[in-house]
Amino acid sequence: MTFIKTLAVATVMTLTAGSVMAQEASKLQEVLNRGHLILGTGSTNPPWHFMDSDNQLKGFDVDMGRLVAKALFGDPDKIEYVQQSGDARIPNLVTDKVDMSCQFMTVTAERAQQVEFTIPYYREGVGLLLMANGDYADYAGLKAAGDDVTVAVLQNVYAEEMVHSALPEAEVDQYDSVDLMYQALNSGRADAAATDQSALRWFMVQNPDRYKDAGYAWNPQSYSCAVKPGDQRWLNFVNTVLHEGMTGVEFPFYASSFKTWFGEELDVPKIGFPVEYK
Predict the structure, then answer these.
(1) Beta strand pairing call for 150-154 and 171-175
(2) Which strands form 100-106's sheet, in the order they lie side by side?
């Protein structure tokens, strides 16, 4: 065998060995070998993650983890939950306490320097909750009423600016709890409540026919799961699972969860040209 051929064979063997080692070192192989997924999530924020009446962890974030477990093992229940606070989401990933975190985590450039974000599985925004029998039918009616409208909102330093970006003339009443905000709406002290679109939808699911969505949302932000940086194979796998949940073979699983927690029937992905490239 010539020197060039020997070198070529050695190079191929080195690349192949490197590829096998990379696969074995991946979190994907680690999880498969272990036999269950370890998911970091919360337990106090419906409809994302909360304990139900049977003391079982439920919610849309939880279902995204179950979708990944189903893809790994054919069983969505092969999953161990690590209940964590919001400030533990990143530390628990980088120290390998969890395999992934799904915990209504807003994608930001700062966080993306510390973790790898998956593709988004939900787009959050602010919405306006109205009483079904209230004085205003929709967002257009609220905006036309100008300063006659009072909006209840959870207290924070950006609350007034946030509301005025949608309703520039509205009066803004801030409350230090979500319960007080909803009480203001129920009692008529407020004409609308400004809250996360997901919370608005969940509240409507819990109270059918009592409330309605004004039909306008703003301040978009993406929610993604996150994994430890530096493992492209694991990231690619989780991305594939989430993508096919929203657009492909696992769409029924994703759509059923979406209907349960947000009360919305999703349209079946259009057959033919992939919607991602339109």
Answers:
(1) parallel
(2) 79-83, 37-41, 100-106, 211-227, 116-131, 192-196, 150-154, 171-175
Per this entry, what is the length of the chain?
278
Tens digit of each residue's pLDDT, the chain (278 residues): 554 444 444 444 444 444 444 455 899 999 999 999 999 999 999 999 999 999 999 999 999 999 999 999 999 999 999 999 999 999 999 999 999 999 999 999 999 999 999 999 999 999 999 999 999 999 999 999 999 999 999 999 999 999 999 999 999 999 999 999 999 999 999 999 999 999 999 999 999 999 999 999 999 999 999 999 999 999 999 999 999 999 999 999 999 999 999 999 999 999 999 988 87
Cβ(181)–Cβ(193) below 8 Å = yes
